[in-house]
Amino acid sequence: MLKKLIINNFAIINKLQIDFHAGMTALTGETGAGKSIIIDALGLLVGSRSSIDFIRTGQEQLNVQGLFEVKSSSPIFAILDEYGISHEDNQIIIKREINRKGRNVCRINNELVKTNVLRQVGRFLVEIHGQNQQQELLNEDNHINILDRFADDKFQADLAKYQIMFNEYLEKRSRLRTIQKNSQNLVQRIDMLKFQIEEIDSAKVIAGEDDKLEDEKNQLSNFEKISSSLQESYRGLSENNIGVVDALGNVRDQLEDIMDYDKSYKELYDSINGAYYQLQDNAATISDQLENLDFDENRLDNIQKRLITLDGLKKKYGPTLNEVIEFGKNAHHELSEIDIDDNTEKKLEKELIDLQNKLISLGKELSKQRHKTATALEKSINHQLKDLYMPNAKFGVSFESSADESLSANGIDQIRFDLKTNVGEDFKPLVKVASGGELSRVILAFEAIIAEKMNVETIVFDEIDTGVSGRVAQAIGDKIYKVSQFLQVLCITHLPQVAAMSDRQFEIEKETVKDKTETKVSLLNDLQRIEAISLMLAGTKVTDLTRKHAQELLELAQGEQKRLD
């Protein structure tokens, strides 16, 4: 569960630290005070998309930190082990920092991680439900995924097997269509690749070869100048008795005779002696180079021809020989992918038919399992709807099988959630008949069913009670409290009945500090809760009678909690 949340420079939040506990926590306050901003910050911690627009005006960066206490059986620890992230005491610390340059830094237990790793961990930490979930429920394409969440482990394994097979089917079908539609283009492409490969392979290109040949060409092209310069250099150093080496040797001998008379003479001798031997070495090196110097007119001609060949390849396939070599490798790879024999098309067609038959067979098995899941889900949802004061409502799941040629990633089923809200009416698509309040209750019914088997630690309800009031509001408060017996629940609400059912209540307010708006969060004591719920009941003006009603509402809520416990 979430133990601590620290937020800095996020929207209208300057600095905020909130300590959370197990059970049900209500976040209340005026619209725009920052309740949803707190949930958005929590969303960042579990991998939601970042934006520099979140950064507080006048600041360069925001940062959010969260301390989570996780059950030892959580799948999170396997993920942490996979990425080499240390953990102990079943605690996880997540930090996320975003600056105005777009830099996004994520850390888990002080280890830098990518956002996708944060999402993998986050999906087992927090699940946020609000307006997005209403949109998900209003999109019929999502209904099959929602239904599948309630299926057992065998179904999940079969679905994963089906999807692997389906992806293979799509790849083969795509390849077959490419072959069928572009056979002529493929032939031309194959011919081009073969020509390019032959041209590059026959040249036997070696990386860096052109630079070495250029150096050799420069030597051969300037043979006379190099030879003349080396000869003059050697004569200057060693020939006759006027060579620099002999002259320096005479100086060295003179200094050797007097070096014992003064320290400075000894230093001069050592310096001249070193230079003497260095020049001797240089003279020997020049002599060796003169002996090895050789002019081969044919070699120069061959080098020039080879450089012309290499330059031609570089103009065609890349500005450097390394790129020419890489081009050749890529051409080999591409040719191996598309170079097909006459039987490839027929082979693919047969493989596709076999795969399609297997997919249909497995899809039918998945459909049978889905029907069982749907029956159980209908029963459970309808039971929950009665608790939520929709006694005449009936929830249903309708099936329609896809045509064989319309296999989908989820099988052969097309799923739609239906609802009838009154006796005597027919089932109609949920998206067409449910009001906002009814959708809120249907979502809550879903959550109540899966609360016990969810792998998350914390669930957030962001104004899920919109559009309801009266006894329905009380029923929603009861249902959310029931969920909190299995999971930590954070609930943003404007309903006094729901707030009263919470174990703890935070009041979120806006205040102006030095001409800037800031969000302030306070944990309410018993008297403060009476005042806050009075304001939720009365609107603007709180009276003694309102306070009395608020106190009564809190006392009734305590009774409800005991009954539900």
TrEMBL record:
General function of this protein: May be involved in recombinational repair of damaged DNA.
PANTHER family assigned: DNA REPAIR PROTEIN RECN (PTHR11059:SF0)
Family: Belongs to the RecN family.
Name of the molecule in the record: DNA repair protein RecN
Upper lineage: Bacteria, Bacillati, Bacillota, Bacilli, Lactobacillales
Matches recorded under InterPro entries: DNA_recomb/repair_RecN, P-loop_NTPase, Rad50/SbcC_AAA
GO MF, one example: ATP binding
SUPFAM superfamilies reported in the protein's UniProt record: P-loop containing nucleoside triphosphate hydrolases (SSF52540)
GO BP: DNA recombination; double-strand break repair; SOS response
GO cellular component, one term: bacterial nucleoid
Pfam family, one: AAA_23
Keyword vocabulary terms for this entry: ATP-binding, Coiled coil, DNA damage, DNA repair, Nucleotide-binding
Keyword Transcription regulation carried by entry: no
Key word S-adenosyl-L-methionine present: no
Coiled-coil intervals: 206-233, 338-365
Residue ranges of every copy of the Rad50/SbcC-type AAA domain listed in the record: 4-233
